[in-house]
Fold:
Amino acid sequence: MKKIISIILLCVMIFIPSACDKNEKSDINSNDLLDFNNDYQYYYSNINGLNLSITKSDFGYYIFLQNGLLCYIDKESMEATPLCNNVNCTHEDKNTCDAYFNTYSVPWSSGNTLQYNNGQIYILVRNEDRYGNFEGVSLYSVSADGSKQKELVSFKDGFANWIIHRGYFYYVKIDYSDDIESYSVEKPFKIYRLPIDNLKSEPQLVFDSGKYCDYVTGGVHPLLAYENYIMTTVSPISKYKINDINNGEEYVGADSRRYFTINTENLSVTEIINNDGEVNAPIFYNGKLLYHIIKNNKFVYYTSELDGDNAELVKEMQYSDNVFSDGINLYMQNIDELFDEKMKNEKIYLLDSDLSKSGSATLPITKFSISNIPQDPDYFIFINYLQQENLSGDFEIRCIDKSQLKNSDTETIEYKTVYSSSRSTIDNKTAEPDDTLILDTEDKDLQNVFENAKNKCYKVSVSYDDTLSDKETGGFSVKLKWAGDEGEYTADFQILKFNSDKDAKDFVKDNPYSFVNGQYVAFASVSSVPVEIKDMLESIIKNEPIDPINSSDFSGDIYTFS
Amino acid sequence: MKLIKYEFNKLFCKRLFIICFFLFLAANAVVLFYTQSEAFETQVIRKNLAEYESVIDDISDLPPEQANTELKSMLKVTEIALELDMLADKTDENTVASLEGFLNQYKEQNPKEYAKALEVDLSRQVLLDRQTFLSELVQQSEYIVSYESFIGEMKQRAQHQLKFSIFAEKGSFSYNNIQQTVKDFENMNGVSPEIGNNLSIENSTAFVLTDLLVVALVFLMCIYLFSFERDKGLYALIKATQKGRFSLIASKIFVLIVCTALVCVVYYLSNVLVCGLYSGFGDMTRNIQSIEMFMNCNFRLNIWQYIILWCLSKAVTMCVAATVFALVFVLIKNTSVVYIVSAAVVIAQGLMFAGIGGKSPVSFFKYISFYYFLSGNNVFGNYLNINFFSHPINITKIYLVLMPLLFVILSTVVCVSFVKQKQTAGKGVLTKLIEKAGNKFSRINGSTSVFRCECFKHYKCSMAIFALILLAFSAYSNLKDDISIVYVSGTESAYSAYLDRLEGELTEEKESFLSEQQAYFDSLSEELHSIAADTSLSEEEKLIKTEAISSVLNTKGEAFNQVMQQTAYIKEVGSVYGITPEYINNIVYKKLVEDPTREWQYFTLLMAVIIFAASNVFAFEHKKKMSNLISCTRGGKTRLVILKISVAMLTCAISYVLIYVPYYINFINTFGKSSFDSPIIFMQDFSGVNSTITINSMITVVALMHIIFAATAVMLVLMFSQTLKNNILAVIVSSVSILCPCLMCMNLPNIRLFTVFQNGAWVWLIPALTMVCIIVIVLCYTAIFKSFTKMKITHLRRTENADS
Structure:
């Protein structure tokens, strides 16, 4: 008996890990298949044509802001900076700052804006004459630190979309329709490619949508790539006749989308077809395609080879359950749920490889920010505009560590602000004490107060207003910043030392906007200050300076002098 | 010493040089004055200079933050007072309610300023002016407030940047650049910018025309010093100086440098003077960093110290440029080739400066150029490190090393070349071969007509034929150029598609087509609403169904809206002028009549060809010393003058055709000419033309005006040629008086013939310009005629035979 049990246990010990391995294999980080240095980083766009202006590199991420400013997020420190190595640049002037690019596509909309490939960042730039008239596009390569920019090739026309994948530059060329009686806005589009090391050679035609339909709807032209396949979609449209509608015929509208994959080695084109229904929203996962069909008001998910062969049923899910993957994790969002007005933030579900829910999380970002775009396996990166109606106003770049998702269930996830436009310079604290700053005074006590404030990294200055009182014996000033109703305020607060406590108190009587401690007075000159400013000033004159508090950490409470 | 004195004499005895010096100085001052007076802010400040400076005086003693608050408060008071003033005028209820709303907001948020505003009793214009100059001061004070932290936090910013791996790689340019920048700005700690009147320094240091005029004067000096004696064949005499040729060339270079420096000092300081007199000098003892455009200057200088340094840098750069020109003059013996090579050097530098990107791997060639050193305040007023094999080298240091080095090297080469080489021009090998071949096939067969003779001199000897050949190539290129429109949006394409159908008169058929289209788009909008209201559809389904409709509405719908707006406009115009409304494709015809650069580019090219070709017409014989021969033609000098002018006009006509006509032919081939007979007023941009003149007529009038201008230019150049009796001088003077204004006008959108039509001024301006041109032509002809016919013929004196 014991022997049988031992054998059974042994078998279990041998086979279960293998089974786990198998599962793990199916859960295997398919991101291993993605060489983000050479392959297109598909997880920053979706098959609906939306592109996030983010690209991943060996050491961090590059992200375009909507005003054309290119920033770099360091993966180690998770902090961001504009891609400009000029310390004397304020990054506000588009003409002088190296980090600004006039991209052809508007960042964070349809159309690729940048891509990291083999140590360089590729950016498609719009060329204009001095009057702002369009003159074509140019592909630039930018070094990782932004110090070198090289124009590789120019084109007279613009592109609907472009990617770089495994040594080739692929682009979508469109012509607008000149048939005003048809419903379409564009003629069929074409995809061409050029070798990335020979961009001036003759382009090779890779895909012609005209072979599959006469007209297409306009707008977005998704172009994704994965392993040895390019994927695109065609939205054919019937010829819409005005007479038909006048004659009472029903509006036909767009036919459903068709999805095509193109083998990059032999350029064979295959349409993704499922005999059970129309294919919708295919994604790449685990070396295969994952898509759904709509059947009986349900989303039925299938997996297939990258060319659409060998479709296998995976799972039936609820209507509007949209699945997407970053190569390691599977996520799901229900669009109808998001449309619910009670839902304030972005909700996301985590799925196992068999598409069953394994968890959920509410992300601290506005709804519809994700839009089926998984981003890379490590972080969600978003731009949050502090005033939603003002996209040129202050903003923050926020990162959400995806590792938090595995440990949460309907709890709000934390984010880190890696860059804030309203804090482009460091606030009330210096990075380190400035040893060159010495208060020229024989008063050791005053010197001591000054040194202590300086060593605590306050922004002290040896100059101060010595006209405030003729009874003061010395002083210095401290620069502090805070945000008010009409913007940011910066003030030089005067720290004065008087002959005696009485003189100090007399000064305060005449100048009530002051704090006093013994012979020391901190003169504010304004009727109210944030409580944190008060605390800092009082601590300085007490000679027990607290750590400087940055204005972004203020509580919002105000101290008003009586 | 005597040589130097004589070289100075050669220059200062030349009337042309003196005239050009003062003429250019005056022109520089006038244009600078004009550009300042066109700047709105400068105008306002000038008008209110006393008050502006009084405000500056009041707040200059305050700490920067306090000054900023004070200025903002003053600006707020002015803005509130303006709103109160506007309220007094308005009667419309909605406007009054809106203004009262704003005022109540001000009352709540800025009670002190509101109270002060109630006491303000100034006219609206004064308040508007105050608002303008106070806004400028607020901007200044905000910059000053931020400057201290900009400098004070530089180390922190550097440390922050070095936390990023891409900048922290030791030995990389980024890493080195960050470290170097912090080091270079260390001495700026403690610099306190002050508020003040910055207009004079801003305007004077950014003015570009001065550089062009100084370069022209330097080139003129080089002609007089190096080319004049060669052309007159005097080098054989002057080179036999007591101490050999070296002292001669050394004195020439010395004189060139001294005069260049003098010209620079006078011209650039005059800029400061003109600007200061116009808009005030301000306190020049302030730090240069008080001015925002010098934020990145890392030198501790006062404003007046900076001006001196700026002047010096201009002078040094011009002196080195002068040695470059001197080198070209000394190495190349043929004066025409000298001009071509000099132009090529200038153009090549310009192309490199404009064409190479700032971060390009070859950006070295962009920044190490005369253009960069002369532009604005690049040498001492800005901070830039060039990437030299990953080492940041500051441009100022490069300048301080390169300029003296270049000067020494160039001067040495000039001297050696002058001493060692023959300085007279001979025939080139190619020319000899061509002449030899030509002599085999052509024979002189008796006399030739004067006209043919003039053509030979003009086209062959003066090389006008080469200019025409180049123009022919350019014409071919223009003819074959693809000028079809690249549509950047579906809306543009759809609009064009609509106009292809509608172009021409508005007929009933077209009206019914528009109605059908309107019904079509209305139905699409209704469809959108019904889909949105359909509760049986899920959101995703709604999205899919509406996507296509929205796409059409956003492209073709927008295009149709534009067409409807155009329809309303042309109907209104039609009813006003009593003509049938007509559609014109705005996108296509804007290309023809509103291209801002083509008009001036073509005209400038035509002027350049005219100057090149016509400047030698009268100077040729003076140069070849054939004046005595040609003056005794059959029919007299009058006939000769007329024939010479005719030859120049013929070249002008051929050039005009080669430059202008190909584009029009290409346009007609590409787009057709269906709207050529439509009144231009049907284009909304020409709503001010106040006439039913057709596009065809307008183009004809513009073409005629161009021809008249060209003819006037020809006469002017011929007059210079006859008066100066020197080809190169005529080219110089013509370039400055005709070409430079053309180049300047390229940037002024209001100075175009088509703009004149747009604002309706063409009715009086075209005839006026024509009259002026005719007068100038007549005057030039009279001057040429009198000068040519009254030319003294010098007879050779013969000594009588002693025996007889």
